[in-house]
TrEMBL record:
The modification N6-(pyridoxal phosphate)lysine is found at K47. Keywords: Pyridoxal phosphate. Pyridoxal 5'-phosphate (PLP)-binding protein, which is involved in PLP homeostasis. SUPFAM superfamilies: PLP-binding barrel (SSF51419). The keyword rRNA processing does not apply. This is Pyridoxal phosphate homeostasis protein. InterPro entries: Ala_racemase_N, PLP-binding_barrel, PyrdxlP_homeostasis. Residues 18-240 form the Alanine racemase N-terminal domain. Belongs to the pyridoxal phosphate-binding protein YggS/PROSC family. The keyword Amino-acid biosynthesis does not apply. Its cofactor is pyridoxal 5'-phosphate.
Length: 245
């Protein structure tokens, strides 16, 4: 194709290979877990990678794109307008960024406090949009003291209250739960705790079916423990440079 940046074709082939390999991993892991691979959504986390990678992914049939920083996400969403993508905000979110995120995000995975629910609801209404919100649960051991620690997330015992707040707020809908596996300790046990929280919430809100868990390194385990949405960066796009993202 004329006008392509140098290396564009090679990049496209690389991302296509990665996507193919990823889908195969998801297929095998789903089969092992007795689940249908079609029921699993891959969210491609494109943080630190340029909008042209998002375009390549879209060309390859990936519709769900994840970002963890508002400034970067807003710019990419703007550059990729018209591609019919669903934007997932997966990073820690300050209340003062709610206005911006409400303009482009379709799903916010990192909702971990009532104040943020209110801000997102108000900003979504201002923008005439509706955001699906996931309750981010902290699975870090010792999260009794570490709530809103470096990676965010509400203590499991407070997750239902955040879910109630989302369900009660107009402009936002309750999609389910999200977590990042703990850096230490047993990830299987952690994903089990997330599943238990998800089940409690789903008993009350049957539409809250999403369990966003699993990244490049632990997607098999997450799938074995009920994940419906995987957030995948490295396995699709390669290692990110250190000190960013
Ligand atoms: C970066 C990021 C991911 C993707 O992680 P990989 O290990 O690169 O697949 C998933 N979830 C969150 C919240 C992230 O910030």
């Amino acid at each position: 194709m004329s006008g392509e940046p140098v290396g564009e074709g090679a990049r496209r082939r690389r991302v296509a290979e990665n996507l193919h390999a990823l889908r195969e991993r998801v297929r095998v892991a789903s089969e092992k877990a007795g689940r249908a691979a079609d029921d699993v959504t891959i969210v491609a986390v494109t943080k630190t990678y340029p909008a042209r990678d998002v375009r390549i992914l879209a060309d390859l049939g990936v519709r769900d794109i994840g970002e963890n920083r508002d400034q970067e996400a807003a710019a990419k969403a703007e550059q990729c307008r018209g591609l019919d993508l669903r934007w997932h905000f997966v990073g820690q979110l300050q209340t003062n960024k709610a206005r911006s995120v409400a303009r482009y995000a379709d799903v916010v995975h990192s909702v971990d406090r009532v104040r943020l629910v209110r801000a997102l609801g108000a900003r979504a209404r201002d923008a005439g949009r509706e955001l699906s919100c996931l309750v981010q649960v902290s699975l870090d051991p010792g999260s009794d003291v570490g709530v809103l620690g470096p990676r965010g997330g509400t203590h499991p015992s407070d997750a239902a209250a955040v879910a109630d707040a989302i369900a009660a707020e107009s402009g936002v809908t309750l999609g389910g739960v999200m977590a990042v596996a703990p850096r230490e300790g047993d990830p299987a046990g952690a994903f089990d705790r997330l599943y238990a929280v998800a089940s409690t919430i789903r008993d009350r809100y049957p539409q809250a079916t999403v369990i966003s868990a699993g990244m490049s390194g632990d997607l098999e385990m997450a799938l074995a423990h009920g994940a419906t949405h995987l957030r995948i960066g490295t396995a699709l796009l390669g290692e990110r440079s250190p000190n960013v993202g």
